[in-house]
TrEMBL record:
Listed name of the protein: Glutamine--tRNA ligase
Region named Disordered: 1-25, 43-66
Gene name of the record: glnS
Organism, as annotated: Hydrogenophaga aromaticivorans
Keyword hit for Cytoplasm: yes
Taxonomic classification: Bacteria, Pseudomonadati, Pseudomonadota, Betaproteobacteria, Burkholderiales
EC number: 6.1.1.18
GO molecular-function terms, A-Z: ATP binding; glutamine-tRNA ligase activity
Catalytic activity entry: tRNA(Gln) + L-glutamine + ATP = L-glutaminyl-tRNA(Gln) + AMP + diphosphate
'HIGH' region (motif): residue ranges: 73-83
Chain ranges of the tRNA synthetases class I (E and Q) anti-codon binding domain: 518-590
Length: 614
């Protein structure tokens, strides 16, 4: 199924109250949770204050959390907008239903993980507005702390006859696995006794065998129609230094084995993941049943639920492909404002509130769909409309000279203060004091946009052309008299006369009617600034679909850097402060390169409307 719009409300999308009394649009996950709460499915659970096995939790207190969810990234890269949806979903459900969301690092693959990614992930979750503190406890965990229990669980499966060591090559195992039309073939090592398998597994643990020479497999059903149940590998030999456990282990659990155990030790109730794990759920349940039967894990076991991952147009979310963009210098880094990484979105100027609104608006379904990028941009505009202070900037400047300025005001160097509201009146909540007005100078010379003058105007053009009058926004009405050009015919100056008595906000200011008002910045007090005009990184809405080379779809106009002039209120902006540049859209003071007062650098976040709409 493909759609560019979020799912519409239906009888299954009734509003559900959250902890703050607000009503969220319901979805199938909320309905499952509400049903479990009503039936008391997890009401008898106990929590010992830290993750642990059945005996550990049995000695604890009744769980103060009504539900437990988790956000379990692997620390092998920077999080992206798809992860942001999962963060908002898992932490949001826990918040709304009196629960706790665990922050857990699934660090079972030592070759690809790094503390750099751990730190960036923690920062991203907190920036989005969530944390893992609840009931006076931190719920920050890492799977590698459970390696001892995972090993114990593997030995239990071996002794109970549910696992065996297989010494076939990877190619032999692949060939024996069968396919959707052909059942698998039993390994010649499948009939070993539990004692033989246990001895072999301990040799694996002790480093007696080479990497890749053998694996531990669950003994389930080689004829299962679900290929994932055909004796999946659960441990492999891999000599690699782990960022947390060092060189303690030379065998590591497979993700499909580790993940359910992590959930159970942490007393997770609702284990929420994306649809690609749906075929793994039978193994998840099989493993939970075996370990609960053996008394290692507590009842009731966690249950896995799947939802459709985020598919966003004009974006790629493959970590491998994003890394290629970085390492091939197609972008400036992981936090390049064109990247869909959370650090990139943050530097671009997206707000946590806009991303939370986006996650809420697109909803949660079990069917794949495409969300148009304009939906994300729309959420940002909605958030910034009543927050971002206004300001004037000239991005493609040409000088406007008011030739009668000295005649009108007595001196060429005379200047006057002009004022404009920092926020429009409709943006200030009733009863709140509006922010102070912006104050800026007007003088004989101002910068205007080059497109605001036409020597020979096209039909319907209302801005500056010889004989026409316009208002300098917040300032005077002026009448255009002509221009000056260089030898190539390029306009170097626009000339006009100021009309005294027409200054905005003064009595009689409207005695001369102007059909247009244009933005401007004073030459005397305006500040030069670097403005980075970012756009979508790809020109193809589905840049890597169907085996396409996504590099071919890079948008050559995704970044244009200009030297602009901005009013003084913008030049004093703090890094990461957002503004609406009047007529141009939303901009942010770059959180890395901008220096207030001495080196203004602004990024375009998004325009005032969708310029990509067909």
């Amino acid at each position: 199924m493909s759609s560019n719009t979020p799912p519409s409300p239906s009888k299954n999308n009734a509003a559900a109250p959250n902890a703050e009394g607000e009503h969220k649009v319901s979805n199938f996950l909320r309905q499952i949770i509400e049903n479990d709460l009503e039936k008391g499915t997890y009401a008898g659970r106990r929590w010992a204050g830290t993750p642990g096995d059945a005996a550990h939790h049995a000695a604890g207190q009744p769980d103060p959390a009504k539900i437990r969810t988790r956000f379990p990234p692997e620390p092998n890269g920077y999080l992206h907008i798809g992860h942001a949806k999962s963060i908002c979903l898992n932490f949001g459900l826990a918040r709304d239903y009196g629960g706790v969301c665990h922050m857990r690092f699934d660090d079972t693959n030592p070759e690809k993980e790094d503390t750099e990614y751990v730190n960036s992930i923690l920062d991203a979750v907190q920036w989005l507005g969530f944390n893992w503190e609840a009931n006076g406890q931190s719920h920050l965990f890492q799977a590698s702390d459970y390696f001892d229990f995972m090993y114990r669980a593997a030995e239990y499966l071996i002794t109970a006859g549910h696992a065996y060591v297989d010494e076939q090559t990877a190619e032999q195992m692949r060939a024996a696995r069968g396919d959707f039309g052909k059942p698998g073939v039993d390994s010649p090592f499948r009939s070993r006794t539990p004692a033989e398998n246990l001895a072999r597994f301990r040799e694996m643990r002790d480093g007696a065998h080479e990497d890749g020479s053998m694996v531990l497999r669950a003994k389930i059903d080689m004829a299962s129609p679900n290929i994932n149940m055909r004796d999946p590998a659960i441990y492999r030999i891999r000599r690699a230094t782990h960022h947390n456990t060092g060189d303690k282990w030379c065998i590591y659990p497979m993700y499909t084995f580790a993940h359910p155990i992590e959930d159970a030790l942490e007393q997770i109730t609702h284990s929420i993941c994306t649809l690609e794990f749906e075929d793994q759920r039978p193994f998840y349940d099989w493993l939970m049943d075996r370990l609960c039967e053996g008394g290692l894990l507590a009842h009731p076991a966690p249950h896995q639920y799947e939802f459709a991952r985020l598919n966003l147009t004009y974006v790629i979310t493959s970590k491998r492909k994003l890394a290629q963009l970085v390492y091939d210098h197609k972008v400036s880094g992981w936090d390049d404002p064109r990247m869909p990484t959370i650090v990139g979105l943050r530097r671009r100027g997206y707000t946590p509130e806009s991303i939370q609104l986006f996650a809420e608006r697109i909803g949660v379904t079990k069917s794949d769909s495409w969300i148009d990028y304009s939906t994300l941009e729309g959420c940002l505009r909605e958030d910034l409309e009543n927050k971002a202070h206004r300001g004037m900037a000239v991005l493609d400047p040409v000088k406007l000279v008011l030739t009668n300025w000295a005649e009108a005001f007595g001196a060429d160097d005379y200047t006057e203060d002009c004022t404009q509201p920092a926020l429009p009146h409709h943006a200030v909540p009733e009863g709140q004091t509006p922010p102070p007005d912006r104050v800026f100078k007007i003088g004989k010379e101002v910068w205007i946009e080059r497109e605001d003058f036409e020597e020979v105007p096209p039909k319907g053009y209302k801005r500056l052309f010889p004989g026409n009058v316009v208002r300098l926004k917040g300032g005077y009405v002026i009448e255009c008299t002509g221009c000056a050009k260089d030898a190539n015919g390029t306009v170097t100056e626009v000339h006009a006369k100021v009309i005294p008595g027409t200054k905005s906000g003064t009595p009689g200011a409207d005695i001369v009617k102007a059909k247009a008002a244009i933005t401007w910045v004073s030459v005397a007090s305006g500040v030069s600034a670097e403005v980075r005009l970012y756009d979508r990184l790809f020109s193809d809405p589905n840049p890597d679909a169907g085996g396409k080379d996504f590099i071919e779809a890079l948008n050559p106009n995704s970044l244009k850097v200009v030297t602009a002039y901005v009013e003084p209120s913008l030049a004093s902006a703090q890094p990461d402060q957002k503004f609406q540049f009047e007529r141009f859209g939303y901009f942010v003071a770059d959180r890395v390169d901008h220096v207030a007062g001495s080196k203004p650098v602004f990024n375009r976040v998004t325009g005032l409307k969708d310029s990509w709409a067909k």
